[in-house]
Each structure stands twice: as structure tokens, then as C-alpha cells.
Design a protein that fits this description.
Elements lengths: L1 H16 L27 E4 L4 H14 L6 E4 L2 H8 L10 E4 L5 H9 L5 E16 L6 E2 L1 H8 L2 E3 L5 E3 L5 H4 L10 E3 L5 H15 L3 H9 L1 H9 L7 E3 L4 H10 L4 E5 H5 L5 E3 L1 E2 L6 H6 L5 E9 L9 H8 L2 H4 L15 H13 L5 H4 L2
Parallel strand pairs: 1-2, 1-3, 5-12, 8-9, 8-10
Antiparallel strand pairs: 3-13, 4-10, 4-11, 4-13, 6-7
Helix pairs in contact: 2-13, 5-7, 7-9, 8-9
């Protein structure tokens, strides 16, 4: 009996101490009670791209060191996996920021919308090149986009109006000027933004240089995209997870292999790796920044504005990431391999970021 009375007393105390909810704030249509803000020691949760993660982690550590807020948690899930987690809902236990090595897709925005995540702020942070890297002592590679496609596509035109399984076993089979080395490529999985960008920029770009596929693009864009971006599954391409560090380790173990990764990982491992030339252009900071290197892309992070009032420090993190000492030409992120936006772009992006302006309906449809 005494135990029962004690339990009842605790239950009454818990109700009395619970935060009050203004019933007028309840959504009449859904009956949902507004999400309560987190405690001051709640950490910002960041998910997404393995390419953007080193920059995000560096900013998080700096932000944690100089501000009153705890260091944000950065989880590498891949761009696609990041958006899937980001779009699950609103609240302090949900990710507030999603890193991305490509723009958010309309299908991902729709996934967010269905979960009530309707105010998404897009912040462009800089540029990155997608490189084909191999070990320092391995043969030199100078590839065209067409040669990359011919090495990695699942099917190629058979010259008779049909398709054949990719017969190329070595790089020399692809083109006489390439080394007699087996095709063995380690790359990111389908959930990765690097994989998406590589498929679009390198594989589709290479497919367009083949007359049969260029004609197919005019006739049937969907079939062209499928033929252009479907990678062979006969062991010549190996999905290596979301962490580019694993690809670097593979290249160290096998000098015949080539790895697909962001420029920042090459830049951090130049003592061990080198990047292939693409179309005669080497993947360097200056060549990527100028647009001369043919496989380059923009990088982003996305903020869940509806979480700003629920998770302390989001605005401060955004401010730290977009200040000149971080993402400017002499900022600490350049040392990590970030290729900065132009001065005009940085100024415009920072103004937009600090104001936390959500994507417009037009932006969301692109």
C-alpha cells in the first residue's frame, strides 16, 4: 500500500512539473502538440556527405571550442542517406543539418514535406572535383570521359544497333594509349552524392561522346540516362562504402586499382596518391576553381529552419561556417581541401545563410 501511495505521489509530481502546453497552439487538423525545445546542452546533429564531412567536422570543432554551445555531432551517412534521416521529422532528436555533395532532389524535398519539414535552407559552401586516383608508383593515367564510360558502363553499343555486355577487361582494351592494367575501380555506393555526381558528369558526359548514345539521348532521355549511368557489376567496380578513407587504403594495398573520391581526400594524401588527368587537365585546386577540370561539382549543407528554435546554436554554427576565416581563400577549411566560392558568391551566400531564407518553390522544383 505504501509503495502504491509513493508511486501515485511521484506521478502527481511529474504532471505538476511537466512543461505547460498552450492548447491554442495545437494544430487543430492534426492534433499534434508543438515540439518542446531541447535543453541548452543539446548537441546539433549533422548527417550526410562523406565529402563534406571533413569540413563540417572542422567547423563543428571550432564552434564547440569558441562558443558556449557543445560541439555538434557529425555523422557520415552519404548524401542520400543524410537526406533520408534529415527528412524524418522536426525536433531536437532529429538531424538539424544535412551535408550534401549535390543539390537536394525534388523527391527528397517531397519526402521532407510529408514529414512536416517544409522550411529548408540551402547553403552552397564551395566546389570539389571528383578525381580518379591511384597510388604514387602506379602508371600515369590520362583519360577522356568517353574512355571512363567505356571502362565502367555495364553495356556498350555493339555496332549493329543493339547492346553488348562490356567486354573491356584492361585499360588498354579501352584505348591503346592507356596502360595494360586490369580495370579495377573502387568507388562510392549509390547512396553517395559523389556517386551521383560522377554518374552525371563523367559517365553521362562520356556517353554523349558516343554517336549511338548521343542519338539515344535525343530519342529517349530516360533510357539514355539508364544506359549511361548503370555501372558494370562483374567485379570491375567495387562499392567501397561511404568513407573515402577506405578507398585510399584499397589503393595502397593494390597499385593496379583506381579510386573515385573527392579532391579533398586526394589533396590530403598527395604523399601517397596522384590524380588522373581528365581530358588533359590535372585535378588541382586552381583547375577545379577555374572550371577547367571537367568533373567538378558544388557542395552544400541544408538547414532545417524549423529546428532553429528547438536546438541551441544552429545560427551560430551557420555563422561560423560562412565567415571568411573559415571558408574564405585563406580560411582554415581551404587547408582541408575546400575550393572556395568567388568573393561575390561568398558574400551573397553568407547574407542568405544568416537570414536563414528557405528554398523557394521554384528552387525546390529544380
Amino acid at each position: 500500500m505504501r509503495n502504491l501511495l509513493a508511486m501515485l505521489s511521484l506521478a502527481t509530481l511529474a504532471v505538476a512539473c511537466a512543461p505547460e502546453t498552450d492548447l491554442s497552439e495545437i494544430d487543430a487538423a492534426s492534433g499534434t502538440v508543438p515540439v518542446l525545445a531541447a535543453s541548452p546542452d543539446q548537441k546539433i546533429k549533422i548527417v550526410g556527405s562523406s565529402t563534406v564531412a571533413p569540413f563540417s567536422t572542422t567547423v563543428a570543432e571550432q564552434f564547440g571550442a569558441i562558443s558556449k554551445f557543445p560541439t555538434p555531432i557529425v555523422e557520415t551517412t552519404g548524401t542520400g542517406g543524410g537526406f533520408k534521416a534529415f527528412c524524418q521529422g522536426i525536433g531536437p532528436d532529429e538531424p538539424s543539418i544535412s551535408n550534401a555533395s549535390r543539390r537536394v532532389k525534388p523527391s527528397e524535398i517531397e519526402l521532407c514535406r510529408k514529414a512536416g519539414v517544409t522550411q529548408i535552407v540551402e547553403i552552397k559552401i564551395g566546389y570539389d572535383g571528383i578525381v580518379l586516383a591511384n597510388a604514387k608508383g602506379a602508371p600515369e593515367m590520362d583519360l577522356t570521359k568517353e574512355e571512363i564510360f567505356r571502362a565502367l558502363a555495364e553495356e556498350l553499343p555493339d555496332g549493329k544497333g543493339g547492346w553488348m555486355k562490356n567486354p573491356n577487361q584492361t585499360w588498354k582494351d579501352v584505348a591503346d594509349h592507356l596502360p595494360d592494367m586490369p580495370i579495377l575501380v573502387s568507388g562510392p555506393p549509390p547512396t553517395s552524392g559523389t556517386r551521383d555526381a560522377f554518374a552525371e558528369l563523367a559517365l553521362e558526359g562520356g556517353a554523349e561522346e558516343i554517336p549511338e548514345l548521343a542519338a539515344l539521348k535525343e530519342e529517349d532521355k530516360d533510357l539514355f540516362a539508364k544506359k549511361a549511368t548503370t555501372i558494370r557489376n562483374d567485379g570491375k567496380w567495387i562499392d567501397s562504402g561511404e568513407n573515402d578513407t577506405a578507398i585510399v587504403q584499397t589503393l595502397m594495398k593494390n597499385p593496379d586499382s583506381i579510386g573515385i573520391m573527392g579532391y579533398s581526400f586526394l589533396e590530403q594524401n598527395l604523399d601517397r596518391l596522384k590524380g588522373a588527368h581528365v581530358g588533359g587537365t590535372d585535378p588541382t585546386f586552381d583547375q577545379i576553381a577555374s572550371g577547367a577540370y571537367g568533373i567538378s561539382r558544388s557542395m552544400f549543407f541544408y538547414v532545417k529552419k524549423q529546428n532553429v528554435s528547438l536546438v541551441p546554436g544552429i545560427e551560430g554554427y551557420v555563422s561560423e561556417f560562412t565567415q571568411e576565416d573559415a571558408w574564405g581563400p585563406t580560411g582554415y577549411l581551404v587547408e582541408k581541401g575546400l575550393i572556395p566560392l568567388s568573393a561575390e558568391e561568398r558574400e551573397a551566400e553568407r547574407e542568405h545563410a544568416l537570414a536563414l531564407v528557405p528554398m523557394s518553390a521554384e528552387d525546390q522544383g529544380s
